[in-house]
Specification:
By secondary structure, the protein is an all-alpha fold. 43% of the residues lie in helices and 0% in strands. The longest helix has 23 residues. The chain binds zinc ion (2 copies).
């Protein structure tokens, strides 16, 4: 437990969170990190799911799904606006409730190892961790080239909200989609250069891609 004046979060006055909310700072540090993770993952989940539902957001997000092969560089194959929206929706709620920096860092430390391996082109087998984290075995399904398999696993690093909203997909055996890439047909210029894809958001004809 975070004792007053001795540990992480010490010295924070009660009610120092913005907007009248506050993460309960008398809870054990690990529990504060868990609560922060649940909140950030909830908003990240819906941000991601909306990017698959709204045509203009899908056009932004299609850049991430255009690759027909998963490898670690896919972590960075994200439209800058998509990246900005993800961070605003994912972290603004934590800031609004006055989440202490050490708790945010705890959440990042818990989830960044998962994110760094999420697109790895490695035969990683994570066992029971696939029921907690959106590992590369789990996230690969999200990149499937068909909506039946691909409209799954929207969680940023945890799978809890996918389980809660019925979008979780994982198989212990045969756990690979047949192919990854955009759903077909689509008018998105997935074969164009990275710069052309980024700029395509601002050209006539944008945002009419089939999902
Ligand atoms: Zn996606
Ligand atoms: Zn991905």
């Amino acid at each position: 437990m975070v004792a007053a004046g001795t540990g992480a979060g010490a010295g924070r006055p009660a009610g120092d969170g913005g907007w009248g909310f506050d993460l309960p700072d008398r809870l054990p540090f690990a529990l504060q990190v868990l609560l922060a993770a649940l909140l950030a993952e909830f908003t990240s989940y819906w941000s991601h799911r909306l990017h698959h539902r709204l045509p203009s957001l899908w056009w932004l997000h299609a850049l991430h799904h255009g690759s027909e092969r998963l490898y670690w560089l896919n972590n960075f194959r994200i439209h800058p606006l998509n990246h900005a929206i993800n961070y605003v929706l994912g972290f603004a709620p934590l800031l609004l409730i006055g989440t202490p920096p050490d708790v945010v860092l705890g959440y990042l430390a818990l989830t960044y190892p998962v994110l760094m391996l999420q697109h790895a082109n490695l035969p990683l087998r994570s066992g029971w961790l696939n029921y907690v984290f959106s590992t590369n075995e789990v996230h690969r399904w999200h990149h499937a080239d068909n909506p039946k398999d691909g409209d799954r696993n929207f969680g940023r690093a945890l799978v809890l909200w996918d389980m809660a909203f019925g979008t979780y997909r994982y198989r212990a055996e045969g756990n690979d989609p047949v192919a990854v890439g955009l759903y077909q047909p689509t008018s998105y210029p997935a074969k164009a250069s990275f710069a052309r894809q980024v700029w395509s958001m601002f050209l006539p004809g944008c945002c009419r891609a089939a999902f």
